[in-house]
Amino acid sequence: MTTSFAPLTVAIGDLVPHPANVRSNSPETYDPENIAHLKASIAVLGLLQPLLVQKLDGKYAVLAGGRRHAALKELIADKATKGFTAKTKVDCRLVPEDFDATTALSLAENITQAPMNAIDEFEAFARMMEVDGQTPETIAKTFGTTVAAVKGRLRYGLIHPDIRAAARGKVITLDTMKAFAEHPSQEAQREVFEALTKDGGYLQAYTVRQALKSRGVQVSDDIGAFVREDYEARGGAVAADLLEEHSVLEDAALVETILLEKLGAAAEGARIKLGFAWADAMVRYDYATMADYGRVYPGLIEPDEAARKRIDEITAELEKLQLEMEDEGLEDGAYNALYERVDALEEEARDLQEAYSTEDLARSGVIASWQGGQITLHVGLVRPEDTVKEEGARGSSAGPTGEESPDAGEITYPASLAEDLKTERAMALGAAMALHLEATLDLTLFKLVSDVLASGMSVTQAIKVEARKEYRSHAKMDEIDETSLEQVAAAHDALDLSWLDDTRAPADQFVAFRALQAGEKAKLVAYATASTTQSGFARDRSRDSLMHDFEIEIMPDIRAHWTPNAALFNRFKKAWLLKILGEDLGLAQEAVTLASSSKKEIVAFCDKLFAEPFATLTDAQRAAVAAWCPPMMQTAGVAFDEAEPTAETPEPESEVAQAA
């Protein structure tokens, strides 16, 4: 038998909650933030569905429709909303007082309403614009949401009908359907959809997004934003989206042409400024391709009189800026401005004291690429055909070190990586020097007097005693192992700097310095000299016997001051990592197992292994892990340009060779 409930209108002020309402124990359901959309809808469209009420103690208790009741009370309380007071009447249906299934009725009201299909919702929003003449702003007001949220829904409702039909028929997932909204052109959507489904394969959202990327560049993409003005000036087509950031520059070829022109102009400007022989541009810097290129670096030069004068001016200004930056009351903006000025001055000073040789400029150049949302210049590059072989001939097979290109599985150290490793080794050596006070003090004094009193030939170029801290450059300074940095910081904290008072004149500082104990002076000299260590690999005894022997004395094991980490392993090829694991560390089985893994996974394995050697390692493996470093970095090793493979290349049939 069907039960019917009589219609009636009831003043909002006469409505109360019903104890049998199944949501009565979930008050959070009626929190203002949870009914905001419903409140907005009722304010614009009115109450579309009557409330089920039952007479209790002279009031009308809301048995079904508690959220609508809560929204009505919110409208009364909202003084900005017109037309809703406690006396405003709303449509209801009256449940008889003797009805004995009130709880079941309330439950049925809440669970029998099927949630709206997401695609229906998207399409309904689209129809509200196309048929009803609504705007995103009016729709947002109706449903109590933001204009951006409405536009987001509308984008899905405006996807090509064939694709929406496929999602409705569960041929593709809802997420896959949404991926097509990455491009606002329905024609582009349809073409990609047909191309990806012609063979009947499973369609994924990621695949769709990747395919749509070839159909243009979003204006919110860093490249799109960079070229947009020129692109539109040349009449490039733009597919407009409801959300501006999703609009697409449709002519990908024109986008790339403009980008390459801008990159080329930047490279040419750098070429002219620095005097290189050639300039080139590439959208993405291909490290695999560039591995065959060499690189030259500027060397120290003797500044002329004008340059020396400017350097003195820069030094004076830097000292002044340093004092200003020590002001604890300085605001962040002012401090950052001073910091940027210091950077600019230091760079200018370096440029006045460094230069490329004429020979290097004649064969090297600059490439501009797009990286991290900006133009990046790669300077001093030498094309493979211009690199010099050991015997002096030029040939296309020469690599960055002037030798024949090695086997892909053989570990070589590209010039950029080699330079950074030299920097890391210099930092480790500096830490060792700061910790060996007496030896470093003797070395400093010996160099100081020998350079003056001996034949005039410097006893070593490995350290500078010129009252100037050595500038160290590294491509990944924020990612290197921090052991040496921590050791040097600890040495600095142990220094007695009571004499170093900027408010005193140098003569007064000198008096205070002379009063220090000999041990404190040794610490200061060791620390200062350690800060001058120049970048370089292990010294060759025949070329620099002094530093060769000294380094062995104070740093017999570089691993006491430096540990290889992910930053280093990320710059190695996958085959190199497997070779290190299998041959250098004796972890042949691990190398075979990891051969099918991604490079990222192998890097993570190596990083964890060197951070804390696994308990499962044998004594020999543990010793190998504890001692391993690139051979030219270890003091007892050989110089970089003389380095030879530490083991023969495995036979092709070996497990490690097959893994690599």
UniProtKB/TrEMBL annotation:
Domain of life: Bacteria
Region Disordered: start-end pairs: 388-410
Protein source organism: Aquicoccus porphyridii
Keyword Transmembrane: no
InterPro entries cross-referenced by the UniProt entry: Chromosome_partition/occlusion, ParB/Sulfiredoxin_sf, ParB_N
Gene Ontology biological-process annotations: chromosome segregation
Name by which UniProt lists this protein: Chromosome partitioning protein ParB
GO CC terms of this entry: chromosome
Protein keywords: Coiled coil
